[in-house]
Amino acid sequence: MSGPEQDRNHMYAMELQQRKTATIRVLAVDDLAELAKFELQWNDLVSRCATATPMSSFPWLSSYFCHFAKPPTTWVCLMAVQGDLLVGVLPLVRHQRSRWSSGQFVQLPNNPHTISVDAVLAPEVAPEVFRALLAAARARAGRPTALAFQRIREDSPTLSLTTPGLFRSSQPAGQGAFLPIPADFAEYRRSLSRNFRNNLNKAANKLRGFQDVRMSILSGSDAEPDLLSRFTTVEAASWKGGAETAIQCSPVLLDFYADVVRHLNRAGWLEWHVLEADGQDLAANLCIRLRRSLFVWKLGYDAAFSNCSPGSLLLEHVVRQLSTEQTIDEIDLMTDQHWYRNWGMAWRSYWDSTVYWKGTLLGTTAYCSDRLRDRLRRHPLRHRIKRHFNRGNA
Description:
This protein is an alpha+beta fold and about 400 residues long. The strands form two sheets. The chain has a nine-stranded mixed beta sheet, sandwiched between helices. A four-stranded antiparallel beta sheet has the order 1-2-3-5, with helices on both faces. The chain has helices at about 5-20, 30-35, 40-50, 60-65, 125-140, 155-160, 185-190, 195-205, 230-235, 240, 250-265, 310-325, 360-380, 380-394; strands spanning about 25-30, 75-80, 85-95, 105, 120, 145-155, 165-180, 215-220, 270-275, 280-290, 295-300, 330, 345-355. It has 14 helices and 13 strands.
């Protein structure tokens, strides 16, 4: 941990100590203008929480609420304050139709562009803040029977903190890749498979046939939000454009990411990686530099130049540069793609977790129903029946 970061944490801890006798109050905010008043403290809180992803921050969630939480979906953000200090955030959405027939539920924001949102808790008072937020969720979010956390990190405190008065059910939700930054890049590269190293070498040789090749890592004041248009153009030139899943194919996504990168830039977290050659963008990455992690969220490349693997060469350049700087501990990709294994990635588990209020018949019924459904889903007889029908349809 750096000196300035230590000083900031020390000052925060002292301020929190001075307020330890203050009552934790929870404010329910459902207006974007009011939410913006918490921007600086919210971002600072995310910076101090080791397991908080960028998707739990103000830049991401204010954009989510603006562009994705349209009626009949409703949202509220529960802000826990102690004195005048923000110590916890729990963002909630309620959809019109519940997946539980036995009761109503609320959940944290989630969609393919917001895949890992968690409660953000001040580490020094996490248990007290979590209990206060859960109580407020029950009282202020329409008295739901259950609250669903989706795809949160295995080391999240919300998975381990006790929840008196509630049942809890947790299930694996896949894994996400991350790459610890090597201290010695040459040694790391030698650890990769010979076939993959040969492919990187061939791609680099082909890239040398271009003029004016430049690989850029743009952060801080250089990471201008307007570079989004360059990224979306490159991304749409890949298979995503043909499949119509690229950002450029959706006006809603364009507006959403325009807000996200603008807010990330203001927080000082935005980072772009760009590979240019012959005056064209061959590959680009949309990234977030938060704490000592680099989250590589969106990768794009121009398929017309796929023979020189521009995306792989750009990532190799980034790993080499970060290995030299040692300002980042890991590159976090958060998802699981088959090609990550070429890079010798490590893996982190993610979990879905649901809490059910015990004091209600609907909460208890929903919990028992979900536990029964989960047991039936994992029962060996079900798998034998499934294999039998699969063989019959082969």
